[in-house]
Fold this protein.
Amino acid sequence: MENIITKYCIIQNRKVIVNGETQFEDNDNLEYGKLMKSIYKHYQIKYPKYFKMDNLSKLAFLGSEILMQNKDNIQDIDPAKVGVILQNTNSTIDTDSKYVETIRDKSNYFPSPAVFVYTLPNVMIGEICIRHKFQGENACFISKDFNPEFITEYVTELLDEDKIDACITGYADYFDGKYKAMMFLVEKNKENRKDNISFKPEIIKNLIK
Amino acid sequence: MNTIYTVSNNIITSLGFSSKENFDALKKGVSGIKETSDPEITQIPLNVSRVDSERLSNEFNQIGNSADYTRLEQLMIISIHDALKQTNVDTSSGETIFILSTTKGNIDLLEKNNLSFGKDRIHLWKLGEIVSNFFNSPITPVIISNACVSGLTALTTGAQLLRKGKYKNAIVCGGDIISEFTPSGFQSFKAISPQPCRPFDANRDGITLGEGAGTIILSSEEKHVKEKNPVIFRGGANTNDANHISGPSRTGDGLYYAIRNALTDANKTDENIDYISGHGTATPYNDEMESKAIAWAELEHVPVNSLKAYWGHTLGAAGIVESIAGIYSIKENCLIKTLGYSEHGVSKSLNIIKEYKKTTINNFLKTASGFGGSNAAAYFSELNND
């Protein structure tokens, strides 16, 4: 059976695009942290843990929050069968650099556990899982560019083999002030409708153009 | 679906540069953990397992110029080179994919602000390019950074890509180095034991870190199999605790799901599991969580060990090097004792291996858990004796 994208969200160039529609746009040239916070407010998200996340986790978390709004049907799925599979390019080098600053000066040595814990890229997946209690397949793949062929093939197999029933997937990356999230909620198709969006690489390439 | 053979492997740790050298040390109960005050990696005395640097560059210089490669690249390339020597798998064909797992890659370059290898070299995708290009691979490698379960995620991913015939061979290599980054971070969590770690013990007080690389070559092609009764990768799974980003589940649910799902993936319907290669980091919370997950899976009676007191927690390599030790336990029909364990210290009555012993081993389950709430499990068994 075909798997379909039931919602998608792109965060880049100061815009949030959901299912092809621009829902948020920043015209004030906000710096990254403030931009993310205004997206957080725009979608009326209430999750205090957000404020301790690093730049990468904030981005992936907001993408997943936007995907999950008004998607109550996902909460009916066994949480052990909801997967979170993401790609990323620059791992956590942003946070790694911040952590390195805390250990560089031996006379002012203050390694911070709160920073260190965000020096693993799969922690963004953990944050999304914690928020929704998702316990299914999860993996963080690193590639030079977003690779829709790889991710669709990997996630499709998990869905087709019934290892998961739904998946938050796609790409989230933050490095050197530049950010990009392209995230997709993928579900098994229950009824054939004309406006269904197939979970296929060529379709994804079109959606993110 | 294709059968996934494990056709060759290599381990590089403080205990040696081949799987055999490493496994012989495990059989004898030898640990590679030593105390160091090397200012390059620690501000206070630290127990750690490190690969011998002189031997590393000597070994590397036999196949390349060590000045052109970082420490981690050298480890991974030597490991893959040694595993390839034992097979005819062609890395320059489009049928062979490289799958690399690491948590921190070339993190030492970032720490030292070392730009001599070029600014891209700190990126994990670049590490993948460097390693796969060394072996003339025409295919973009898959890189996995899934915390401490990365190695098992890499093996499961490799098997998934081979099962349906997308590729015929997968070179699965995991590695991480010890620099100041990781020890200082775990120290800030107060998670490092002042002594060599003591998995599942009542007095355990934290992890011991280790560096190394491990490679398993998976193939769906029988022609690469040299043994009569090879070890097969039967199934694997990744799950999440969805509980806390730096602390394991209190119930063991995530790891239990990983075990359950891996055995389902392996079509394992009977209860005959000969051995569990646990994660056993020796932090109070991890080992307790593991004991609950193993009990939940009704596997308390199965002999279980942790190998962390031999070569430390090798992070991105751990799932691979510990799986290779499991393969050797099958080949040599023996069980390795849990070094560092003396007094039972977890709430469930696990069957912890206390002494090296010879016994028939046809299969094993490997488990891992890590930051970000990640868990993974994989099941291996002989072709003719599941």
User: Anything to note?
Assistant: Residues 198 and 340 of chain B are 4 Å apart (CA to CA). Residues 71-85 of chain B form the longest helix (15 residues). Chain B has eleven helices and 16 strands. Chain B touches chain A through 53 residues (CB under 8 Å).
